[in-house]
Write a structure and sequence with these properties.
single chain, alpha/beta, Rossmann fold, seven-stranded mixed beta sheet, three-stranded mixed beta sheet, 12 strands
Length: 190
């Protein structure tokens, strides 16, 4: 299976390694037409405002929204989670960041603090398994869900993994953990 990874900014190569280790072909996505030749898409972590602007300038933004709304499995990690949300918190509003608006959730950027407050935690993730090693780096958090979006994992009161049909989002970076269970779970959707 060909699995696209948005390649405009962020942790692209780490996702590429996970996809390849699971026996699939990773494809860097940098132009809209490339989305027609894949079965699933990963939106990596990075800086969400920058990624949003690059998606718009390359023409990928509208095409990703169209593909996600049409049923293509999309997995967003960290910044990718922010972009998948229908609503953003104060920082999203302040930067006037454009969101894809695909998941029924509100996300707060940098919910756990800045870079120096990065941390790791082992969490139980519904459908994935127990004691998953989660790496949080300037991580967002889901502040609320509605409609078809359901939480899969929490850290304290914050939702850090959520799912809605063909869409999956995590606050943390599973591609840095060495544990392939979330990628396996996501790719089973395709």
């Amino acid at each position: 299976m060909r699995v696209g990874i948005v390649g405009v900014q962020g942790a692209v190569s780490e996702h590429e390694e996970m996809v390849r280790a699971l026996g699939h072909k990773p494809v860097w996505i940098t132009r809209p037409g490339a989305l027609d030749d894949i079965s699933a898409l990963i939106m990596p972590g990075g800086e969400s405002t920058t990624i949003s602007r690059l998606l718009e300038s390359t023409g990928l933004f509208a095409k990703i929204r169209e593909k996600g709304a049409g049923g293509m499995p999309i997995f967003g990690t960290c910044a990718g989670m922010v972009l998948l949300a229908k609503k953003g918190g104060a920082q999203v509003r302040k930067t006037q960041q454009k969101l894809l608006g695909l998941m029924d959730m509100e996300v707060s950027r940098n919910a756990f603090g800045r870079q120096r407050e990065s941390f790791e935690a082992s969490l139980d993730i519904e459908g994935v398994g127990n004691r998953f090693p989660c790496i949080f780096i300037r991580a967002p958090a889901v502040m609320g869900t509605w409609g078809g979006c359901r939480p899969l994992a929490r850290f304290g009161k914050a939702i850090v993994a959520a799912e809605q049909g063909n869409l999956l989002a995590t606050s943390f970076h599973p591609e840095l953990s060495g544990d392939m269970r979330i990628h396996e779970y996501f790719l089973a959707k395709a």
